Amino acid sequence: MQPQKKRLDFNIGPIKVKFRNEFQRIFEIKESEDSKFNVLEIGYLEYNDICVVLAVKEDTEDETVIPFIAETKKDDEYIIMFDYECYMKINDQKYRCYIAHELGHIVSEIKGKKFPLQSYEDKEQEALANIVNQNEHSADLEALGLLRNKNTYINSLNYLIDRFNEIVPNNSDEIKKKNIYIQTMKLRISALN
Fold this sequence. Notes:
Blueprint (H helix, E strand, L loop, with lengths): L9 E3 L2 E5 L6 E7 L2 E13 L2 E8 L11 E6 L2 E6 L1 H5 L4 H18 L9 H9 L5 H14 L2 H16 L6 H21 L1
Parallel strand pairs: 5-7
Antiparallel strand pairs: 1-2, 2-4, 3-4, 4-5, 6-7
């Protein structure tokens, strides 16, 4: 994995997103007791005097079906992490919207909006009942408040639906998960209109 040498800095509304031309620290992210991965710091942004690390997930050079982007907190540092595809395509507005969405989760937390941890089954029940996920909706609203460009933001969500539609499920469980994911995205879009 090689860092990009071209200028990648951009703004999310008033917030400056800065990229370095080399990887910095390595963070180990634990997903569960037996699952972990590394992310490599490549940049940062500042929100209300809070520095948010931007990091690329290690060993993600191979093309993925769905881009990986998420946020976490490690040792009191917020981290927005993404796969190599997102990093390489960061000049595309859609991918910048995904960073804005993850920042939206962080902003929600800073503002004291707490949402309970949900299992996949909880999210599935919401989608089947046509209920928008409040954690995701709150992050969407915070991102839109910063970006002030609803059409571009909604286009980025539609792009994820298109990417998910490219998946050819192997079994009924995968078909169900695909349909739940698409329904969840459609509910998020409807809630913004």
